[in-house]
Amino acid sequence: MTHFLDIHKTEADQLRGIIDNARAMKIARNDRPKGMPDDDQPLAGRMVALIFEKPSTRTRVSFDVGVRQMGGQTMVLSGSEMQLGHGETIADTARVLSRYVDLIMIRTFEEATLLEMAEHATVPVINGLTNRTHPCQIMADIMTFEEHRGPIAGRKVVWSGDGNNVFASFAHAAGQFGFDLTFTGPKTLDPEPEWMEYAAAMGRPITIERDPYKAVEGADLVVTDTWVSMHDPQSAKERRHNQLRGYQVNSDLMSRAKPDSLFMHCLPAHRDDEATSEVMDGPHSVIFDEAENRLHAQKAIMRHCLGL
Ligand code: CP
Ligand code: NVA
Question: Which of 107, 132, 265, 284 is catalytic?
């Protein structure tokens, strides 16, 4: 069973293959006249379940559209409306869904839910975000960087803000794609030690630099994300804003990175909190390319999982 659970759980050559396929599919689709279906319909006759236990715009729409572009059909399910949200075990849900559908994508809270789903499903399972990681996003981000600037290997990527689930997948990608990753943020919001240890073991130790201005020196890519994630208690908001204000990505900070540096944010953003509108809409920003590339990257991930 080929699941896509995390970037560090898929072989590096397979990750590279996914990015290459995503790029090829994007080009092929953009070359077709608008309104014409793709010649390639690898998911014809297949059904994909998209389960959401948290809100989503990009993940939901890009998976749904991606499956349809490849000739398949989708079923979008909200966790709270399923028996899953009313006490049925994840293992039983996985076994039942596997009798109906060919692929399961799940966005959930606990990583344990994703892992239990993958353990008991007899169809591939894709991680659409948990409290700990967001691998599909970072596959799209690698694709986006390389479209604009060529190979990411050996480049300097700087994350400013909360050491959260999106950062975690960047840490995995640093190991698998071979780039240098610097984290700048307050100590209380440092990334999980497990991810730091993983990157170090892969020969890409993550640099921690508390001063954001020093951190971004020489950066090829500056990345941030919301200061309060969906799984964080709203009561943490004010404290986090106070802790993170100094790590806002603004034009002053971007001016210390390389002149041709890129700016990324997975979105949704809180404009003028973690990043200013000036940066988000400015010349370094590729935020909407990232959003588009979720579609292409996930199409390639689904094909990888289904061996198509
Ligand atoms: N970036 C991302 O995953 O966005 P959504 O929460 O809208 O899916
Ligand atoms: N860190 C954010 C990412 C949203 C796509 C969250 O988990 O809410």
Answer: 107
